[in-house]
Write a structure and sequence with these properties.
With 225 residues, the protein is mainly alpha-helical. It is 76% helix and 0% strand. Helix 5 packs across helix 8. The radius of gyration is 21 Å and the shape is elongated. The chain starts with 20 loop residues before the first helix and ends with a helix.
Amino acid sequence: MPIAPFVHSIPLALAGEPAGGVAGWAAGLVDTMGGPGAGLAIALENLFPPLPSEVILPLTGFAAGQGVLSLASALFWTTLGSVAGAVALYWIGALFGRERMHAIWTRLPLVKASDLVRTEEWFARHGTKAVLLGRMVPIFRSLISVPAGVERMPLPLFVALTTLGSLVWNGILVMAGYWLGDRWDLVEGYVGVLSKAVLVLVLVAVAAYVAVRLRGRGARHRRAS
C-alpha cells in the first residue's frame, strides 16, 4: 500500500512522543493529520501566543525525522500556518483602524497623541523591516501583524514579508528538531531564554518611558507652583 504524502503510519510514541500539555496536543495533531496538523498548530500559535512555537516547531522537525511527514511538508505547512495566523491578525488591526486606535490612545495615562503620531511615522519608514525581522523575534512574532493592519500596509507586501520571515524562523526550529531527534525539547530551553530576554528589554523600556513621563510631569508641576 503506498504511503500517504503527509502522514506516515509510524506513531511518534515509538520514539518518545510527549504525553501531555502543549507538546502532547501538538504531537497528537501532527501524528493524526501530518503536515496540515502542524500548520493548524502554528496558525493557532500566532493567534494565541501562549502556545509556544519553540515547542511546536522542533516537535514537527522531530516528527519529520521519524518519518511521520517529510521535511519539505513540515516547512511548507508550518510556514503556511504562520502566514494564515498573521493575516488574521492583520485584518483585526485593519478592522480596528487608526481612528479607534487614536481614540483609545488619548484616554491612556502618561501618553500623548504626538507619541502615537511618531510611532506611525516610524512604522511608515521602517515597517517593512519591522514585519520581516519581527517574525523572527519571540513575543513580537504575532504582535507585529496588528500595527501592519492598522497602518494598512499593502497586503501583498505584508504576506511576502511574513512568508519570508516565517520561513527563516520556522526553518531554524524545524531543522533543530529534525537534527536533535528525541532531544528536540532542548530547543525550548534556548528559545525560552531568548523570549525572557526580549520580555525584560520590553519591561525596561516601558519602565524608562513611564519614569521620563512622570519626571516631566513633576517638573511642570513644580514650575506651575
